[in-house]
Amino acid sequence: MTLDVLDSGKPARIVAVDWAGLAEDEGKRLKALGVDEGAEIAVVHRGVFGGRDPLALRLGNMTIAIRRIHARAIEVEAA
Predict the structure, then answer these.
(1) pTM above 0.85, yes or no
(2) What's the CA gap between 49 and 39, in Å, rounded?
(3) Which domain of life is it from (predicted)?
(4) Which of 52, 49, 62, 48 lies closest to 3, judged by CA?
């Protein structure tokens, strides 16, 4: 499943990232934040308007925000 459909609060592990589906600068930003295969991640909050953007993610000790379109490029499996 992709990260954009992961239930809030459920821990997961990133199994693949479609780097080709992301703009180069967006991919670099996500890698710099630690978004990569093997990382433990969880959705902690979703936006309330329209497309429910952005998604707040717990990644290690950090909380980061990404857009749903970026979350669709991240494949996860439940931990």
Answers:
(1) yes
(2) 28
(3) Bacteria
(4) 52
Reading phi first (left if > 0) and then psi (alpha if -120 to 50, else beta), residue 40 is in beta
**CATH of residue 7:** 2.30.30.90
pLDDT in tens, 13-39: 999 999 999 999 999 999 999 999 999
Structural domain count of the chain: 1
**Domain of 31, in residue numbers:** 3-78
For residue 70, what are its two tokens?
A: 């970026």
Taking only the tens place, the pLDDT of each residue in 48-57 is 877 678 999 9
d(CA 26, CA 48): 23
Residue 43: exposure state from Cβ atoms within 10 A (0-12, 13-18, ≥19): buried
